[in-house]
Design brief:
Layout: E1 3-10, E2 13-20, H1 22-39, H2 52-83, E3 92-93, E4 109-116, E5 132-136, H3 140-153, E6 156-158, E7 169-177, E8 189-195, H4 201-207, E9 215-219, H5 220-223, H6 226-235, H7 243-246, E10 249-261, H8 267-273, H9 282-316, H10 323-332, H11 340-366, H12 373-388, H13 398-408, H14 411-433, E11 437-441, H15 443-452
Parallel strand pairs: 5-11
Antiparallel strand pairs: 1-2, 2-4, 3-4, 6-10, 7-8, 7-10, 9-10
């Protein structure tokens, strides 16, 4: 009779030994041989008339091994289902030399497996987390910038005869030259567009009053400030950090001059921007934009707060792991086995992900956080509408429900939508337990915080 014994071999690391006797696998082995005798197609013999000895010689060894392994697997999972140990993944087999298995001398066999046990732990107290909600207040400059952007986006492009405005859009032919403007043979030549205000003040002054066909000679490093210089170096085929390329001179010939005539601030324009609101004055527009800008940054602020809470729970929840087991699991569990060096490099990130999975699963379970079918359907509907954007979908939108029905049958789609919704619910709940201080910061300061972390 098959048995399973368990012994501890390390921190949260146990060994299971499955022992099978001849009685556990021989009946199945004999039955399988008979089945092969009835179905085997071997030249020179009629189907079902192949001698049993030949069948055993040809197929016996592989059938014998298979039936032993099936017996072992059956006993292992019967034990796991009965004992229900809290384990990571699946048991990992310890090496067994199958060459010792001989169908001509049936015997009792032992197979070893190792399991990694999930730790007991206490969650960090979220109410004690020292976290801050960094809020951004919309400034007049932010509102001005947004209004200007909208006026340009909805404006009309004109082609003035001369450069007379730092908002001029110039199509320029960049031709490599020396400092006197003499073209370099075999040098770089490429057309690009640039808004005049992106050039340095001194270079802008050189272009003022110029017409199509006229040019100025500049040194790249003096024509563009550092942030713009990197972009234009790459556009011209250089590395963004190429100091020698930055010293090169170019003739900048004007191919085309453009200028966007900004939209006037009229009620029609207001309605295009906020069709659902009755905005009649610039003051009302500014108030609506201020609210929209602050709502956007509040979303970013909450993301950053959630990042703080994620790190607090991860850092302050103390948890031990069966490290050796998990490293072997990481090494052998994928499609392609990893090297020991790869495992050592990946393990810190892997263990953090594992830790967060245990923390989040516990919070979701203990607080009864759920996502129902209707929530999934509504989320999918919103995603569909966002995908189609402002396209005119017509009056008949019944097809959307049919489309959602098909999405609900797609396991990957449902799982992806569920994960997003349950993660939102989880972090909303965590936020509600935290006592975050509020602090006003600039948009630039908040953006810098977001670049520092992101999960």
């Amino acid at each position: 009779m098959a048995t399973v014994t368990r012994e501890n071999i390390g921190l949260l690391h146990d060994k299971l030994t499955v022992k099978v006797s001849k009685d556990d696998y021989l009946p199945a082995f004999d039955k399988k041989l008979k089945e092969y005798s009835k179905t085997a197609n071997i030249p020179g013999f009629r189907k079902g008339m192949v001698p049993a000895g030949m069948i055993k010689k040809m197929y016996g060894p592989s059938i014998f091994s298979d039936e032993i392994l099936k017996s072992v697997e059956k006993e292992l999972y019967t034990w796991l289902n009965a004992e229900k140990p809290e384990i990571f993944g699946q048991p990992l087999p310890l090496s067994t030399d199958l060459r010792d298995i001989n169908m001509n001398t049936p015997a009792d066999y032992e197979f070893g497996f190792e399991i990694g046990l999930k730790p007991d732990y206490t969650l960090a107290d979220i109410a004690k987390a020292k976290v801050t909600l960094h809020k951004v207040a919309a400034t007049d400059a932010m509102v001005d910038e947004e209004i200007g952007r909208m006026q340009i986006k909805g404006g009309k492009m004109t082609e003035p005869e001369t450069v007379d405005n730092d908002e001029n859009v110039l199509n320029i032919l960049f031709t490599e030259a020396d400092k006197d403007g003499v073209m370099v043979e075999g040098g770089v030549s490429k057309e690009n567009s640039v808004i005049l205000k992106y050039l340095t003040a001194a270079t802008q002054k050189k272009f003022m009053g110029k017409k199509v066909g006229e040019s100025v000679t500049v040194q790249l490093s003096k024509a563009f400030d550092d942030d713009k210089l990197e972009m234009f170096l790459q556009d011209l085929g250089f590395d963004k950090d190429d100091k020698e390329a930055a010293k090169k001179y170019f003739n900048l010939e004007i191919v085309k001059i453009g200028l966007v005539e900004k939209r006037d601030l009229t009620e029609d324009f207001f309605k295009e921007i906020f069709p659902a609101k009755e905005i009649k004055t610039e003051a009302e527009l500014r108030e609506a934009l201020k609210e929209e800008i602050e709502n956007y940054w509040l979303g970013q602020s909450r993301n950053q707060l959630q990042d703080q809470l994620y790190h607090y729970l991860l850092d302050e929840t103390k948890m031990e792991f069966p490290v050796e087991f998990l490293k072997r699991w990481l090494q052998t569990g994928g499609d392609k086995e990893k090297t020991a060096e790869q495992v050592e490099t990946e393990f810190p990130s892997f263990s953090n992900q594992l830790k967060w999975t245990l923390i989040s699963d516990k919070l979701i379970k203990e607080n009864g956080l759920e996502v129902g079918n209707e929530e999934l359907r509504e989320y999918m509907k919103v995603e569909i509408m966002r995908y189609f954007g402002t396209m005119n979908l017509g009056e008949d939108t019944g097809w959307i429900e049919s489309y959602i029905d098909r999405m609900m049958k797609d396991e990957k789609q449902v799982d992806s939508s569920y994960r997003r919704l349950i993660t939102d619910k989880l972090f909303n709940w965590i936020e509600g337990q935290a006592k975050a201080k509020e602090k006003v910061v600039t948009a630039e300061e908040l953006t810098a915080m977001q670049h520092h972390h992101g999960h």
